Amino acid sequence: MSWHITENLDAFLARAGTFLRSRPVLHTVQLTVTERLSTYGTRAYGDEAPVFGVLERDGAPRAAWFRTPPHWLTLTPLAAEDAAALAARLADLGHRLPGVSADRGTAVAFAEAWRRHTGAEAALYQHQRLYRLGTLTPPDPMPPGRARIAGKADRELLVRWFDGFLDDVGKTGAGDPEAWADARVEHGGAVLWETPDGVPVSLAAAHPMIAGQVRVGPVYTPPQLRGRGYAGAATVAVSRAAREAGAEEVLLFADLANPTSNGVYLRVGYRGVADFAVYDFSGPDR
């Protein structure tokens, strides 16, 4: 077993690209993040250089990870002993991590090993479920209105609503709302549900398609407009658009602490695939 660690995105993809594409559902985050880095540059998520790693066994990649500072370490599924070995390796190399995001078993194993090697405590930040679209089932009845693709004239609205979404989920500083809005407008990846008189009331966005999969998110409705079916309608619209564009898999993550959003996704045809966890690290060696 050997870990290859690099700050070179091309070198990472040369080793791990085929592996990541071999399981596009479970590797959706790695695929979408590296695609964004390839398109917008390696500082797309922050001022520090990203770091990437590949686990190889018998000359073949078995797992991969990345970190785009200041964000969490993100891992593909790992056996518990491999997650522990990676934690030991990164600790020995002096890496300082704010947290880890991975499928639940991998995240738990890494967090526990990181605590042993660094003394940092791990607190569960979020328990997520990855969903995949089965049979798309529009709400019945649909709320009055229609869906449309957000354009340049909607940029300020997208910025404001993405900022609102980050506030809702407690991800202060987790992304640049202006850069996010510009990227969604550029590739047509934001769908607005608007009332019959043309007032936008909900947003459902999606990442660009890569390896046959599209990941939906975020879905956001302003607080004063919730409970009227707008989020479900917007989610159906963006999901249908992904299918019509040729996506073989349409995916999304939901915070399991929010039963309302999980209920919406289940009703419109999404089904659970795997549970994920995000742990925050605290302590002198985070």
pLDDT average, as an integer?
94
Overall outline: globular
Helix tally? 8
Helix content: 25-40%
- Low-pLDDT runs of 5+ residues are none
Strand order of the largest sheet: 1-2-3-4-5-12-6-11-10-9-8-7
Structural write-up:
- This protein is 37% helix and 30% strand.
- By secondary structure, it is α+β, with helices and mostly antiparallel strands.
- Strands 1-2-3-4-5-12-6-11-10-9-8-7 form a twelve-stranded mixed β-sheet, sandwiched between helices.
- α3 packs parallel to α4 and α5 crosses α6.
- The two termini are 26 Å apart.
- The mean pLDDT is 94.
Features:
twelve-stranded mixed sheet; globular; 286 residues; alpha+beta; 37% helix
Topology diagram in text:
Elements: E1 2-6, H1 9-22, H2 28-40, E2 51-57, E3 60-67, E4 73-75, H3 80-92, E5 99-103, H4 104-118, E6 121-133, E7 146-149, H5 155-169, H6 177-187, E8 190-194, E9 200-206, E10 213-220, H7 230-244, E11 249-255, H8 259-267, E12 270-282
Parallel strand pairs: 4-5, 10-11
Antiparallel strand pairs: 1-2, 2-3, 3-4, 5-12, 6-11, 6-12, 7-8, 8-9, 9-10
A few lines on this structure:
The protein has 286 residues and is of the alpha+beta class. 37% of the residues lie in helices and 30% in strands. The model has no long low-confidence stretch (mean pLDDT 94).
